[in-house]
Structure prediction request, 200 residues.
Amino acid sequence: MTCNCAEFEILLCDAVDGTLRGEQQTAFDLHRQSCASCDEMATDVLGVTAFIERVAVVEPPKELLTKILFETSGKASKANSPVKAGWFGAVKQFLGPVLAPRLAMGMVMTILSISMLAQVFGLEVRPLKASDLEPTRIWAGVEDGAHRQWSRVVKYYENIRVVYEIQSRLKEWADQEEQDRQSQQKDAATAPQTNTAPTP
Prediction:
């Protein structure tokens, strides 16, 4: 059994694991002796794996593990945070989570999205009054907006249907005109040639 360079690379994985047996081991050894580049690659790979096996397992110091657990548990940040003095410090400590960069950016993006949607759908932006928050007025506004949107959708659908009908009718006319022109050309080609010369 012989092997090429691609098969040698596959067998090299088994050689590293130490699972090559019989014909595969023989083919691996023969190709390694005949191919200089594959022999160099096998030497490098087997050397690296032998070096890794010789490296001793390093135990981390117990103090390092304790410090990592202390820092990641959240107790260190609470223990090291200085107490804020005065009313400004209390307000800042209370609003700290709200003013966090992710939350603040999310709030800004939400406000921007709402304002863009209001402009797209033509909603009026004006200050709210107490009467605007009555359930009947809110429901009437929602119902009115839904009816407007529904009428826009229906109008858009009807316009598309009219355009489609016009296009299909124009296509039918063009096809009919093309068929008539082709039939006239066929009739002209098949009509017998009449001799119009005067007879003596």
Residues 132 and 141 are 10 Å apart (CA to CA). Residues 135-190 form the longest helix (56 residues). Helices lie at 5-17, 22-34, 36-54, 62-72, 75-80, 86-95, 101-120, 135-190. Residues 1-81 form one domain.
